[in-house]
Amino acid sequence: MAELAAFAKMNGLGNEIIVADMRGRADRVTPEAARALNASPATRFDQIMAIHDPRVPGTDNFIEIINSDGSQAQACGNGTRCVVQALSAETGKKAFTFQTVAGILNAQEHENGLISVDMGRPRFGWQDIPLAEEFADTRKIELQVGPIDDPVLHSPSVASMGNPHAIFWVDRDVYSYDLERFGPLLENHPIFPERANISIAEVTADDALTLRTWERGAGLTRACGSAACAAAVSAARTGRTGRRVTVSVPGGPLEILWREDDHVIMTGPAEWEFAGHFNPATGSWERETSGRDGEHKTGGAA
Ligand SMILES: N[C@@H](CCC[C@H](N)C(=O)O)C(=O)O
């Protein structure tokens, strides 16, 4: 049986993350292992961030992202912050360059413990989201839920941060919408051939919005970093806000800056919870009992 791999259970503003240490290994975390880990209450998660050896020069690691349903994701902002904190605690390094399937991400941990991730450039072309049919203006596409003559949600903006996002704009409390019901319908709508992350956003100031997200492959989460980025750039490109936005998600605030060079910088915290070891093929796991639990951790390698 392959050696067990180390992991750290962490979170990014309540987005439940497992950082899996797959360095020095030739195997991967299987979808079955992901679903098994998620089935265990103590290790249930939204995403696994699997840290692999680097594959291209100039990068520290290749990061594979797996949703709790076992599907692969191209981007995970909150999870990337957790990876930075874990590796920084292990190595003392503060700046990292990662390769993901969506491209190269630079990230750094600041003196105050907050972590900034360059999430790259947003993509707005209908084929880049992707959408199943052509829409010339992705700031507002024809999609709605609820009665045809009085839709509950309609005309979302769509954007890709390497992964697909639809943002529905509302003018009342985002918690007053039944996202648990509408989320899966929209996630799996045929307009999204790769499914989509579904968010409801209320703009509260020129530099602030409130956001709730039903995540593709994970369901309702307390935070979605790439959705916060997608919502911030969509709010700016529709004239609802400026390019620097505080996005308040159920787990807390994320600071998003859409720079003039088109890169989106997300800044927020990460939190270490506990460590363990697991089988990347089956998902069986054991908690580390080396006394690291119970200490207040600001970091902790996987
Ligand atoms: N929670 C993540 C997003 C993870 C991937 C998403 N569910 C997808 O499948 O695209 C984040 O913080 O960005």
What is the second-level CATH architecture of the largest domain?
Roll
Low-confidence stretches: 292-302
Q: Sketch the major β-sheet.
A: 18 strands, mixed
CATH class of the largest domain: Alpha Beta
Structural class: alpha+beta
Helix content: 10-25%
CATH superfamily of the largest domain: Diaminopimelate Epimerase, Chain A, domain 1
Distance between the termini: 21 Å
- State the order of secondary-structure elements, H for helix, E for strand: EEHEEEHEEEEEEEHEEEHEEEEE
Q: Hey, roughly how much beta strand do the residues contain?
A: 35-45%
- Radius of gyration equals 19 Å
What is the fold named in CATH at topology level of the largest domain? Diaminopimelate Epimerase, Chain A, domain 1
Total beta strands: 20
InterPro entries: DAP_epimerase_AS (IPR018510), DAP_epimerase_DapF (IPR001653)
Keywords: Amino-acid biosynthesis, Cytoplasm, Isomerase, Lysine biosynthesis
Pathway: Amino-acid biosynthesis; L-lysine biosynthesis via DAP pathway; DL-2,6-diaminopimelate from LL-2,6-diaminopimelate: step 1/1
Enzyme class: isomerase
